Amino acid sequence: MSGATNTGVLEVKSIAASDDLTGAFEEFMTTFEAFKRENDQRLREIERRSADPLTQEKVERLSAALDEQKRLIDRLVLKKARPALGGEMTVSPVALEHKDAFHAYLRSGDDRQLRALEAKAMSYGSPQDGGYLVPEELEAEIGRRLAAISPIRSIASVRQVSSAVLKKPFAISGPATGWVGETAQRSQTATPTLDELSFPTAELYAMPAATATLLEDSVVDLDAWIAGEIETAFAEQEGAAFVDGDGNNKPLGFLSYEQVEDMSWSWGKVGYRATGRDGALPQNDPADILIDLVYALKAGYRQNASWVMNRRTQAALRKIKDKDGNYLWQPPTTPGARAMLMGFPVVEAEDMPDIASDATPIAFGDFQRGYLVVDRAGVRVLRDPYSSKPYVLFYTTKRVGGGIQNFEAIKLLKFGTE
Fold first, then answer.
1. Side-chain half-sphere of 333: how many Cα atoms within 13 Å?
2. pLDDT tens-digit series, residues 369-379
3. What is the pTM of this model?
4. Strand, helix or coil at 181?
5. What is d(CA 126, CA 329) in angstroms, rounded to the nearest whole number?
6. 71 Ramachandran zone, left/alpha/beta (phi>0; psi -120 to 50)
7. In whole angstroms, what is the distance from residue 301 CA to residue 412 CA?
8. Are 341 and 329 in contact (CB under 8 A)?
9. Which of these, 353, 158, 132, 382, lies nearest to 251 by C-alpha position?
10. What is the DSSP string of 91-133?
11. How far, in Å, are 28, 149, 260 from residue 165 at the CA level?
12. Quick one: which of 24, 125, 235, 240 could link to 351 by a disulfide (CB 3.0–4.6 Å)?
């Protein structure tokens, strides 16, 4: 719990050791109330003269505590939501055979069963130097975990393909439509001008290590171990690429496209609104520029829109009030829910840039319609017992691509004068 003691010294208790989701959420809400009290005091002091350094320190410490507690709540929610692998479910004999063969390969390196399956159906594996496909159940679990912890993936469209590149046609001039009476003659429509968006996939890898003791222990659930070891590594790497990847052997991030002032926007570019102040929000009525950014987005996209920013930018916005004295940022209403900013959910993506001169640390848009994540079917594992003896490495790969599919659906806030 966080708050001011009778002596005026701020005490922020850590809840890192807590494993109670309800208690953690109550602690988070208590901290937010303490944060509002101290920030209100800071704003009153600024109006009178300048903020007391002690008050400023209290606000910063409470803001940091809110971030820490929110991360703990997210971890507890994720842990609670994870389904157990290997539970009772209807599985085909072929799938069971593949799973048993895969476990034999992980534990001992015996790939004879996998090679036999490969001979029956090439979809199960690849040559020894390319590794073997994980069972479908494990691949689906990896996908679910990535969707839960990868910020951009959690709000973007995700499409699975079997080829190396997804090509998506679109009409530059828009669809040819019109009104016509029930029995009236239909006039010939103009032929639409088509172009094509290309989303190539690139290889993403992780290399968890295991001891011989772990592999020999029959109680250890190897599927859950593999999924747990690679989920964070995959999520961090692809999360960074979805934000600012350059498209060179990785997805093309939405911040890597050409950015133009929203009044000069055209297809193929990402529009932005400028704050009018270098490296900062406007000094007077900073909420107004956020309102402008919201309404820079067409109504059809606002219905499913989200804010995307890192925790430092979120901490700065947390202190802002509107003209009626209400905080723009509001805490999540339940454990696992997102914080809200001006009525829209906030997605915390640590790879977004910090507030700086001419930076674009805030994105707003309907990412489900705006950004496309492309997964190539199949996660492969190659067992390597030689490179780091006495440990066994598992070179795990998947192919992922990504890019903007609708340039109208995402807008940015640029901290600059133009």
1. 5
2. 999 999 998 88
3. 0.76
4. coil
5. 50
6. alpha
7. 14
8. yes
9. 158
10. --HHHHHHHHHHHHHHHH---HHHHHHHHH-GGGB--GGG-EE
11. 44, 25, 28
12. 240
